[in-house]
Amino acid sequence: KNYNIGIVGATGMVGRTFLKILEEKNFPIDHLYLFASSKSKGEKILFRSKEYVVEELNEDSFNKPIDIALFSAGGEISKKFAPIAKSKKIVVIDNSSTWRLYDDVPLVVPEVNPEDVLKHDYIISNPNCSTIQSVVPLKPLDDAYHIKRIIFSTYQAVSGSGVGGVKDLENGLKNIPPKKYPYPIAFNCLPHIDEFTDTGYTKEELKMIYETRKILHRNDLNITATTVRVPVMYSHSVSANVEFDKDFELEELVNVLRKAKGIILMDNPKENIYPMPIIAEGTDEVYVGRIRRDFSVKSGVNLWIVADNIRKGAATNTVQIAELLIKNQF
Ligand code: 2RA
């Protein structure tokens, strides 16, 4: 069976990567419908050597015979148009944070909680990029040793902010003042991703806390997070300090990760072997290294986790959810 796929935000960085991943995975597509804002209307995009014309997104866009709509066009567009698509019985896989914490909206990382995809009521949310790459190694460790507490520190690429972030880094290297960020990101770090809330935490930090609990089905998990923008183009890096209720042998813990789906272990410090953004960029795996016991607690470990934030962190995870949908006949 082939499917009709809609892409909302087709000309954005993630939107274009949806198309690339759909081609790479040879996703069974009959018709493709590309939607974007008025400024991209009429743009031509090649897919499987066929030319598609970008249409302006409007209320009638979902009167077309679309089976699954992939959204990456910001929270406001998702808020307005996902319910319209849902009303037409189109399954939406949304990359914005809008619907992620709604009880009737599955928040899915296929390697971690694939079974949740079947609980959808026509809206499924793709988690935040830094959350996706973190829960891939944390799930097998939670199953083995029951996580008690997690401390996240992230080092996030500017592509997480879209074209604006990339431009600010490129221009910053030429001493041109930033437009997207409040300060230069070149030769700098910004402890400020998304907006600050009155709790002193940014929305990005709260996403990591609440989304991790939902995906792992562990609402009791003690988690804190500090998310930082760094002068890297592609790939987010996450330092995770994880404390367990059960004891572990380090070699056994490493083997748990070695066997886990979607993970590439890169961990041999004596040979300078560890994950880095330049390694993860352009791939779909989650790279884990610097695995070492945290001697400051009874049962704890430190991990260094790197993944391409536009692929596994957004577009690939979204298409993997779509593959789960068609495998389970929705
Ligand atoms: C960021 N994770 O990196 C957020 C949204 N992509 O800006």
From TrEMBL:
Reactions listed under catalytic activity: L-aspartate 4-semialdehyde + phosphate + NADP(+) = 4-phospho-L-aspartate + NADPH + H(+)
Recorded GO MF terms: aspartate-semialdehyde dehydrogenase activity; NAD binding; NADP binding; protein dimerization activity
Annotated EC: 1.2.1.11
UniProt binding sites for NADP(+): T11, G12, M13, V14, K39, S40, S159, G160, P177, N309
GO term, biological process aspect, one: threonine biosynthetic process
The protein's enzyme class: oxidoreductase
Pfam families: Semialdhyde_dh, Semialdhyde_dhC
Statement: the UniProt record of this protein carries the keyword Amino-acid biosynthesis: yes
Domain Semialdehyde dehydrogenase NAD-binding: 4-120
Protein keywords: Amino-acid biosynthesis, Diaminopimelate biosynthesis, Lysine biosynthesis, Methionine biosynthesis, NADP, Oxidoreductase, Threonine biosynthesis
Active site residues of this protein: C129, H236
NCBIfam families, per the entry: asd_B, PRK14874.1
Function: Catalyzes the NADPH-dependent formation of L-aspartate-semialdehyde (L-ASA) by the reductive dephosphorylation of L-aspartyl-4-phosphate.
Family from the record: Belongs to the aspartate-semialdehyde dehydrogenase family.
Subunit structure: Homodimer.
UniProt-recorded name of the protein: Aspartate-semialdehyde dehydrogenase
Native species: Acidilutibacter cellobiosedens
Taxonomy of the source species: Bacteria, Bacillati, Bacillota, Tissierellia, Tissierellales
